[in-house]
Target: C-type cytochrome
Amino acid sequence: MKAVACLAVALSAAVSLSVAAQQAERPRINPADLPGRQVFAAQCAPCHGAGRGDDGSHSLPGTEALARKYAGALPGELERRSDLPAPLLRLFVRRGAGAMPAFRPSELTDAEIVAIADYLAATAQRSR
Ligand code: HEC
Model:
């Protein structure tokens, strides 16, 4: 399990460097136009959205868990993360992570994971 976590962190670091390089040349994209927005809203936002509960506390277990996990080093909201390219996102989504269930290909296709990754890259770029 530790080895998997190390691999994920190393992969994340390596890929985010190449993502950063690509983003420098890419024109800004409006995330609202991307098909991944719908998929994220339906499948991920109930746990990973950016909102708060009525009492001001996070009502979103994914956002809350990630904010706690990274303690300010990375944002809790996936839509502000620029370090989750499709191959790494697929790893988390297919395996599940802690309280997060794994998604099977019959529930979420590889193409939909790529679409979510594109959407997250665009929203992260916008939130900078
Ligand atoms: C039922 C709630 C729930 C749903 C639905 C859910 N997640 Fe999660 N997700 C979590 C929780 C909780 C964690 C934190 C797990 C942990 O403790 O490390 C997490 C962690 C992650 C991580 C790991 C990030 C990191 O840096 O450790 C990624 C990536 C992720 N989710 C992506 C997604 C995507 C994409 C979707 C939609 C396809 C999704 N999740 C749907 C609850 C959820």
